[in-house]
TrEMBL record:
GO terms for molecular function: 3'(2'),5'-bisphosphate nucleotidase activity; magnesium ion binding. It catalyses: adenosine 3',5'-bisphosphate + H2O = AMP + phosphate. Substrate binds at residues 71, 92-95, 224. Mg(2+) 1 binds at residues 71, 90, 92, 224. Mg(2+) 2 binds at residues 90, 93, 224. One of its GO terms (cellular component) is plasma membrane. Belongs to the inositol monophosphatase superfamily. CysQ family. The keyword Metal-binding applies. Pfam families: Inositol_P. InterPro entries: CysQ (IPR006240), CysQ/Inositol_MonoPase (IPR050725), Inositol_monoP_metal-BS (IPR020583), Inositol_monophosphatase-like (IPR000760). It comes from Marinomonas piezotolerans. Converts adenosine-3',5'-bisphosphate (PAP) to AMP. This is 3'(2'),5'-bisphosphate nucleotidase CysQ. Its cofactor is Mg(2+).
Length: 282
């Protein structure tokens, strides 16, 4: 059993993310969520702003030498291009789900070292579920992935696929699985079940072994994927682009991601072959 519950760094990160969740849920109960539109026409709420402040202050206290890139405090590439270590934060991943009040939103905190996510923590405020993954030992934290719920902690890993194959799809951003990919998957598995969810919950469900695949073909940003990528990789899975390469972070001016696949090592090659065939056909 991977036991990090008494490690001071884990405890500090857990406290930071719990504190952010408390303020998010406090605002979630209010009639007015304080919704405004950002310059890119995406929504932001009072909960995004309040949670971001708590996380920024907590991470600065934990590791004052490590700079922070957050959805709510974007830093120019000229300033961050020299950062070898950085926190990548989404204080409220799934703002649209928060506004819809469907409960499917999360808090994401990742540590990126030389472009690679080495630590990730994702917390679901409405359910109290937390996920934590380490791909490369940092401050004495062992490699591996866990889920916690209250005082209960369990080690997690991606599963071997089975029938029905469970594909996570986006609650608000669609589309569902392409029909030709679904047909390809059905050649290996009798049933393919699609399960819509919001935010980083999709990747975490794959990391804990209750789903098999997520194909994302819409836009995301680096703070949407960094934490879940660390957790997925620590659990034995993959988050890769259509060529099979893992995402790297803080490597360019744009913070937008391309298409990506989340899956275990058995499913990912099937989807990558489908992508390759689709490109050849086009």
């Amino acid at each position: 059993m991977l036991d990090v519950s008494r490690h001071p760094t884990f405890k500090a990160l857990q406290q930071i993310i719990h504190n952010a969740a408390d303020v998010i849920m406090e605002i979630y109960q209010k009639a007015d969520l304080g919704v405004v539109q950002k310059s890119d026409d995406s929504p932001v709420t009072a909960a995004d702003i309040a949670a971001n402040q708590i996380i920024m202050e907590g991470l600065t206290e934990l590791a004052p030498e490590i700079p922070i890139l957050s959805e709510e405090v974007v830093v120019s590439f000229d300033e961050r291009r020299e950062w070898q270590e950085l926190w990548v934060v989404d204080p409220l991943d799934g703002t649209k789900e928060f506004i819809k009040r469907n409960g499917e939103f999360s808090i994401n905190i990742a540590l990126v070292v030389e472009g690679k996510p080495v630590l990730g923590m994702v917390y679901l405020p409405t359910t109290g579920e937390g996920y934590f993954g380490v791909t490369k030992s940092w401050r004495g934290l062992p490699e591996g992935a866990i889920k916690w719920h209250g005082q209960d902690i369990e080690e997690i890993s991606v599963r071997e696929p089975r029938d029905p194959l469970v594909a996570m799809t986006s609650r608000s951003h669609g589309p569902s699985l392409p029909e030709d990919l679904k047909a390809t998957l059905k050649s290996a598995y009798d049933q393919v079940r699609e399960l819509p969810k919001g935010s980083s919950i999709k990747g975490c469900r794959i990391a804990e072994g209750i789903a098999d695949l997520h194909l994302r073909r819409g836009p995301t940003s680096e703070w949407d994927t960094a934490a879940q990528q660390a957790i997925i990789e620590a659990a034995g899975g993959l988050l890769v682009d259509p060529t099979g390469e893992p995402f790297r972070y803080n490597q360019r001016d744009s913070l937008l991601n391309g298409h990506f696949i989340v899956a275990g090592p058995e499913i990912a090659p099937i989807v990558l072959d489908w992508y390759k065939q689709s490109d050849e056909d086009n």
